[in-house]
Amino acid sequence: MVDTEPSVRQGAGVAAPQATVTPSPVARRRPGVWQRFRRHRVALVGALILLVLTAGAVAAPVVAANDPYKVDISAYRTGPAATHPLGTDSSGRDVFSRLLYAGRVSLSVGLVAVAIYTLIGVILGALSGFYGRWVDACIMRLADIVLSFPALILIITVVSVLGPSIYNIMIVIGLLGWPPIARIVRALFLSLREREFVLASRTVGASNRRIIFRHMLPNALAPVIVAATFGIANAILLEAGLSFLGLGVQPPTPSWGNMLKDAQSLTVLESMPWLWIPPGTMIALAVLSINFIGDGLRDALDPHFQ
Amino acid sequence: MGTYLLRRLAISVPVLLGITLAVYVIVSLAPGDPVDALINPEAVAALGPDFREQQREALGLNQPILVRYAIWLKEVARGNLGYSFADRQAIGAKIGERLLPTLGLMSSALILALVVAVPLGVLSACKQYSLLDHGATVLGFAAISVPSFFLSLAGIYLLALKIPILPAAGMQTVGQPWSLSDALWHLALPALVLGLAEAAPLIRYTRSSMLEVIRQDYVRAARAKGLHETTVIYRHALRNALIPLVTVVALGLPRLLGGAVIVEAVFAWPGIGTLALAAVLARDYPVIMAINLISAVTILLSNLLADVIYAVIDPRIKYS
Fold first, then answer.
1. Which is nearest to B272 in space by CA: B255, B285, B257?
2. Nearest by CB to B254, which of A141, A149, A284?
3. Which of A66, A134, B297, B303 has the most beta carbons within 10 angstroms of its beta carbon?
4. How many Cα neighbours within 13 Å face the side chain of B40?
5. Cα angle value A220/A223/A224 (rounded, 5°)
6. How close are the terminal C-alpha atoms of chain A, in Å?
7. Count of alpha carbons within 13 angstroms of residue B148, beta-carbon side
8. How far apart are CA B155 and CA A263, in angstroms?
9. Does B266 contact A264 at a Cβ distance shorter than 8 Å?
10. pLDDT tier at A17 (50, 70, 90 boundaries)?
């Protein structure tokens, strides 16, 4: 991010005044964000759970004793034991190791996909709210079109065209998730546009680009952060669902969703709970904790925003 | 109201065209030659490239994409959705037989969700910050956080395998004639799973809408008249609090349909979702196109309908 900053500024044209270092407006304007977040006990529990899950995923090579990809036909679906704390799967691979490595996949799919669509949503929403008229009409109709499709059905369609893979999942969720973010940013920009500080910066000769990104956007970030947090939870659920259906992350790469695929057989479901309860619990824990954090952020970032 | 409706309809037309164009373009990007899908590939290979070229010409595949789109759109407008690559059946008929199971599943899930969510939301609002309120909030968070396929599997594990009181899959008992009780027995578990996920946002919205309404002057007036608290809440407050729920339900339809796809997959429910999955796995593009088109148009229309209902049931709203 830091590297791209100068080139972006150069692109703004010679008329743009020399940027001075400004402290982050969110931090300056709202001194009590962390204090308010800390008071939200449920959100703190969420943050703690997420921290543990992330640590497990990051430290997977250290924590996991077994190779998550090592196939061992002789250890076909063995139950939990000292060597394999959560047993082995249909290819004799260690479930515990796969669970940790799957965390890397599932969490990063959620993060990357949401990063993509937040960026798209912020830019389109800002353009829509700032310029209004036909720009707004076009962007909002495009949002209506995307929102008319049931996300899951549209995503499986695009996946069937592009082929299922971890990167395609990130890109597809990323390209289709932007309308809610764009709507939030647009609504805020419509009211911010009329405020005096915008007029003030216009009078001193600031370019539109500078007004949008330097002056208005920081004031619209709080609800975007909240929406993006809930978005990560949803993206993890979507990825899990897709991988469960065989249209997401492809084996042998483990993801929490595709680890549950085996449980579609009633024998596994009934007599081998170690194969499906742990990954399902991990998804629920990750999604729940992120939703809790989102709830805490919503209360902390804006007391008026219920 | 009349002008509002007209303007609302006018906005929907470009969106509708955009939906059809999006569906067409996505699917036309798919790799592979429809000739291979429609005609026995061995025959195509044996008869040489000239034959393939001839077939492409005959099928209209050599025309520019916009021309092909226009032809397709004209046929769709006349109700012709084309033929499946997989079994050459008319897609309209294929989807027709899958429509009822999915609608049945979705509507029973929605009813279940409303039956659970509305009373819970009302109680949460009336006893704000009580144990019940916090409990409902946590339940709501849990319901949106547990993936529906995991919930389905857990439901099958508990209620079909460990305590076998419900069937694990399917829509009716094999070899038995259709009966209402058998159908409801099969419907129970999938509808419950789908309904629980749907209930979560409804609890939240009922609660916040109710919280807003019970602070209104007319509620105070109703109390001042000496009406019983139950009458105040359920006759005066609830009716007004339910108005925004129309929009929430309509906006939640895409998610409900997405949830139905996954639940149908786990329970082998013969609906649109399983058809869509089978079509995606078999790369049966005409079927995929038709399902996308039908669901997007349905959602567009239901949002339109929700806006109209909203205007009708809430006379306070003036549209210009």
1. B257
2. A149
3. B303
4. 4
5. 80
6. 32
7. 32
8. 13
9. yes
10. very low
